[in-house]
Amino acid sequence: MTHLPRRLGVLALLAVCTACIDSAAQQNAAQAIMDLGDQLGAMHEDNAILQAQIDSLRGALARQDTLLRQLAGMAGLPVPTR
Fold first, then answer.
1. Which pLDDT band holds residue 58 (cuts at 50, 70, 90)?
2. Is the overall model pTM greater than 0.70, yes or no?
3. Rounded distance between C-alpha atoms, residue 70 and residue 43, angstroms
4. Whole-number Cα distances in Å, 10 to 1, 14, 18, 20, 66
């Protein structure tokens, strides 16, 4: 029974030590979250650029398809339908 106060003291000390959060760890976590947000924003920008390129390529393909159909029609060649 004489060790009970000592054990309670050790448990209380452990509880206090684990309750303290390292400020450097908090700063590192906050910086990592901010970096993640920046990376996510950059990915959104890249995605928007790629989508614009895809839309542009679809427009060019549609123009070429129309031109080829017109040329085939003028030459009297059968044009397959999709």
1. very high
2. no
3. 41
4. 15, 6, 12, 16, 83
